[in-house]
Amino acid sequence: MAQAPTAHTVRSFDEEIEQLRSLIGQMGGLAEAQVKDAVDALRRRDADAAMEVVVRDTQLDAMETEAERQAVTIIALRSPMADDLREIVAALKISAIIERIGDYAKNIGKRVPVLTQAAPIGPAVIIPEMAKAAAEMIRDALDCYVDRDPELAIQVMERDAQVDDLYNSLFRSLLTYMMENPHHITPSAHLLFIAKNLERIGDHATNIAELVHFSVTGEHIAERTKTDQTATIAAEPND
Question: Which SS3 state, helix, strand or coil, does residue 235 take?
């Protein structure tokens, strides 16, 4: 259940915290859009659209700088304690995580022009499903931050396994695909890097959820077990 923020004696303190929350929410929305647009450009084999994603990454960089400035200013002027301090420190960390998610989206965009020069790879159909799951995790992680909802944060953490499972499936399929035809190795390798970026985006959305849960409750979540099995997956032999 979402927890209502505590009102402060100084109204401007509440306004400053709300501005910071709003900025973090905007960053999350942009990062989610970047992931969706990068994968949509891949699906449509649109190199120009992919490059637009790469260019827009500077917006997230600038927003992270502004979020850091706001958070440091609040700490310096207000000397927050307890819940307030946890939230502001969490905002600092979350803004850095969102910026990193933007970098992953940019990396996906950079690989699209190379893939447009190669024939479509069958297993790539899993990529949009991974991207959808990861983008939804970003959105919900930022919703639980803005709403201070620790229960939604736990739900986000639990959904990381879905992204891992999709990654394991794609890894296995592409490994077999490359063994069957050496000409598929280069595009398949690029798709593996894209899939890994999406898997890491899911991890980062989970990290945001963990930070939210701690900032609201003061309780750390026990370390979760990852379901990435790629270190032990072997390609299926050809018949």
Answer: coil
> What percentage of the chain reaches a pLDDT higher than 90?
69
The set of long-range contacts for 189-192, using a CB threshold of 8 Å and a minimum separation of 24, is 190/111, 190/114, 190/115, 191/115, 191/121, 191/123, 191/124, 191/127
Question: Checking phi first, is residue 53 left (phi over 0); if not, alpha (psi -120 to 50) or beta?
Answer: alpha
What 3-state class would DSSP assign to 86?
A: helix
Q: Domain map of the chain by residue range?
A: 11-217
Intra-chain end-to-end CA distance of the chain, in Å: 54
In the chain (239 residues long), the average pLDDT of successive 10-residue segments reads 56 87 94 97 96 97 96 90 87 96 98 93 90 96 91 95 95 90 90 96 96 89 69 53
Sign of CA dihedral 29, 141, 78, 69: negative
The closest alpha carbon to 209, from 157, 162, 163, belongs to 157
Distance CA 23, CA 17 (A): 10
Structure tokens at 218: 């003061």
* CATH for the 11-217 domain, from 3.40.50.150, 1.20.1250.20, 1.20.58.220, 3.40.30.10: 1.20.58.220
Q: What is the pLDDT of residue 2?
A: 60
The model's pTM is 0.87
